[in-house]
Amino acid sequence: MKNTIFDYVDLRGDLSPIQYPYNEVDALIFSELAYVNLDNLIDIDFHNVLTLNQVYDLYIKRNETLNEDTLRSIMIESHFLFEKMAHAPRYQNIQILSYVNDIDKELVKQFSAMTLLLEDQRIVVAYRGTDDTLVGWHEDFLMLCENVVPAQISSAQYLQYIAQYQSQLTLVNSLQNKHLDSSWLQRIKKHFQYKKNRPIWLVGHSKGGNLAMYAACFVKDNVKQRIVQVDNFDGPGFQDEIMLSSQYKDMLPRIHSYIPHYSFFGIVLGHEEKYTVVHSHFTGMMQHNGFSWEIGPYQFIDDELSFESVQFAIKVILFLEKLTNDEKHQFVEAMFGLFDSLNLYTFSDLSHISYKHILNAIKELTLFDSKTRKMLIEVLHMLWLEAKKTKMS
User: Fold this and answer.
1) Residues 33, 90 contacting (CB under 8 angstroms)
2) 101 and 158 in contact (C-beta within 8 Å)?
3) What is the CATH number of domain 5-306?
4) Residue ranges of domains in the chain
5) DSSP 8-68
6) 387, 351 contact by CB (below 8 A)
7) Handedness of CA 82, 88, 89, 90 (dihedral sign)
8) What is the pLDDT of residues 20-45, one digit of tens each?
9) Model's pTM, two decimal places?
10) How far apart (Å, rounded) are the C-alpha atoms in residues 11 and 3?
11) Strand 95-104 and strand 109-117: pairing?
12) Which has the closest alpha carbon to 93: 199, 24, 6, 13?
């Protein structure tokens, strides 16, 4: 039987965090929730604080007014996760404090995040990753060329802003809140402590995981000291300059990464944090999808990193090391232009590169100079070999 986070919400959704404290699986659930489109429902400020259940009702009403194409674009797996969470006692009273969705094509920036207020008064900032579309991965690939990309800067600015949140809860409210602590004395203590210094938990899947790590490292010190945990789900690491920084080194004990058996994005660039390998019921690069990760009764099902994914990552790293920074930029732009011309739009498409794609690519490649053409042929060949492995597994 394949148990996923959908099954986990069904199984554990009636248990309050007092009975069954939030854990690594809940962190992935919060990360996947960040993919839900809440445009025009929740703003970046704190003026419209609602529970998940209340926001879901507004979400359904808003969706009734959308045209068919827009509605189809938001009916992703996270949409159905949101529905389950909104009706589960474990999650339905969590409040959404803030939501931002900022896409700037000129800057090649895709940044989105939502902030949750748990019933125990911890703040969870969930950074959105990119979706299955290759267009969304353009900025991610720029991470291979640049130390910092626009979304990373926005991630730290957003966290700094969220840290200003102050609840209007009275002491009586806190005394009545069993989620805060079992001891009345501790509830009083936490009431005054949390007024300005609420604990912060950062989570994110894919690029969202990278943004969570970056924000934790480069937010101001007064906020950094409030961060209790950073969970990165198969997000890429950093260039050497960040890896060697004191900000990254200091945050390392609080960062934990989770990667599937076949991981590519979660092992490229630099990583020094602790990590857990999770079993997935998908194959190849499709294991990046967090909805495929296997859940046991209490936590993820452990696995080990596949030799094939490490080999593929090493090939890509060695390939990129041969290029100057300008050549990396040229290569990234040319690669995404080529994918578009070949009608390759998603990771699923990449997993099914055919011989026909290769023949069509040869025609397109005549448009590039000889060096770029050689680079693209090499990458297409690597992807084709990966596609063959995926089909055989």
Assistant:
1) no
2) no
3) 3.40.50
4) 5-306, 322-392
5) HHHHHTTS-TTTS---HHHHHHHHHHTTS--TTTS-SSSSS-EEHHHHHHHHHHHHTTS-H
6) yes
7) negative
8) 999 999 999 999 999 999 999 999 99
9) 0.90
10) 10
11) antiparallel
12) 13
